[in-house]
């Protein structure tokens, strides 16, 4: 009887933390299938590539915890990326370190402003999140093409401030050899992990997603929290956009077409966030994002074509949602 009870506990724990189990399994499989997987170059490349996805995913998590969704994150990241490059190259701010800082603030601020607009439409105008953020997605993509005139904005590395900006994303610290942009990712994860776990803001975001009516009956303005999660998501997309520009030394409207939307949603869902809101956390979102990262990396290492990769990711997302539904019913 005790043995059966122990097995049941192990089974429940395995199901509850299925994302962790999947991550470990993928790590083992990738190690077996590709000798290049465990190389320091490949692992650091995964961290470097996932820094922007992770930052955006944290914003997506906060939105989804309220029962919403943000389909505009790719477009917002594109605007943030373009605005920092545009300010440097077109407005002549590349001359001084102060101009660089101002350009970065412009890029991040543009993302924040778009997030504020999303929050206003959802919280104040009571538009469905799917519709409002879909509209923002198209608007952001359109603005990206208008601002760039369809051209790629190349940063002029002859200026010391610009060279340092690009070097920030290309280089790693001399001790641990970790890319500097990864430290920003880690900082975002830690900050929002603490916010969601230890502050009243985090608790009320969760409560709003669990039962918004009960929050309102308690005399709390739930719409304020819904507004701010979209604004924060926009802010984080703006930060990711700045990193994108630093990494490539350029900015393009094509960033709006990168799969930040689906990959971050997939990572958050695989990490156990309920699509109905009120359930999910930062540590498991980190696991979910790296599950997607390892799947993509493994498929690249074995030279699987792009379109089959899309099918594999779709299957993983569907299975994650089904498993989440199953565990919710069990609970």
Describe the biggest sheet? Answer: 2 strands, antiparallel
How would you sum up the global shape?
A: globular
Mean pLDDT: 90
Give the H and E element order: HHHHHHEHHHHHEHHH
**What low-confidence regions span 5 or more consecutive residues with pLDDT below 50?**
none
Which class of secondary structure composition applies to the elements?
A: mainly alpha
How many E strands? 2
Q: What is the CA-CA span between the terminal residues? A: 22 Å
* Structure annotation, total helices: 14
Task: List the strand order in the largest sheet.
Answer: 1-2
**How much strand content do the residues show?**
under 5%
Describe what this molecule looks like in 3D:
It is a single chain. This protein is mostly helical. 76% of the residues lie in helices and 1% in strands. It contains 14 helices and two strands. It has helices spanning 2-16, 18-33, 40-65, 73-89, 97-124, 129-148, 160-170, 180-198, 200-210, 212-217, 222-248, 260-270, 282-301, 306-330; strands at 153-154, 250-251. Strands 1-2 form a two-stranded antiparallel sheet. Helix 2 (18-33) runs parallel beside helix 13 (282-301) and helix 3 crosses helix 13. The longest helix has 28 residues, at 97-124. The chain is globular. The model has no long low-confidence stretch (mean pLDDT 90).
What keywords describe this structure?
331 residues; mainly alpha; 14 helices; 2 strands
In short:
By secondary structure, the protein is an all-alpha fold. 76% of the residues lie in helices and 1% in strands. It has a two-stranded antiparallel sheet with strand order 1-2.
């Amino acid at each position: 009887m005790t043995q059966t009870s122990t097995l049941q506990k192990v089974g429940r724990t395995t199901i509850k933390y299925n994302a962790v189990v999947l991550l470990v399994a993928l790590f083992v499989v990738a190690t077996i299938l590709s000798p290049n997987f465990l190389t320091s170059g490949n692992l650091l490349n995964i961290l470097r590539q996932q820094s922007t996805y992770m930052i955006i995913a944290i914003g997506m998590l906060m939105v989804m915890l309220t029962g919403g969704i943000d389909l505009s994150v790719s477009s917002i990241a594109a605007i943030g990326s373009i605005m920092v490059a545009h300010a440097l190259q077109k407005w002549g701010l590349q001359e001084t370190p102060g101009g660089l800082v101002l350009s970065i603030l412009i890029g991040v601020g543009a993302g924040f402003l778009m997030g504020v607009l999303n929050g206003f439409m959802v919280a104040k105008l009571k538009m469905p999140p799917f519709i409002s953020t879909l509209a923002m997605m198209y608007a952001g993509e359109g603005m990206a093409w208008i601002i760039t005139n369809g051209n790629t904005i190349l940063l002029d590395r002859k200026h010391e401030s610009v060279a340092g900006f690009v070097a920030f994303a290309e280089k790693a610290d001399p001790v641990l050899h970790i890319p500097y942009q990864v430290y920003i990712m880690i900082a975002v994860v830690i900050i929002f992990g603490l916010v969601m776990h230890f502050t009243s803001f985090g608790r009320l975001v969760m409560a709003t997603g669990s039962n918004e009516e009960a929050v309102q009956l308690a005399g709390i303005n739930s719409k304020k929290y819904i507004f701010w999660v979209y604004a924060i998501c926009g802010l984080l997309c703006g930060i990711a956009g700045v990193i994108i520009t630093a990494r490539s030394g350029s900015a393009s409207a094509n960033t709006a077409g990168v799969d930040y939307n689906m990959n971050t949603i997939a990572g958050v869902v695989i990490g156990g966030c309920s699509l109905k809101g009120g359930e999910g956390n930062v540590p498991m979102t980190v696991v979910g994002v790296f599950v997607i990262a390892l799947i993509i990396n493994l498929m690249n290492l074995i030279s699987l074509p792009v379109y089959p990769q899309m099918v594999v990711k779709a299957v993983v997302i569907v299975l994650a949602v089904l498993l989440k539904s199953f565990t919710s019913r069990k609970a």
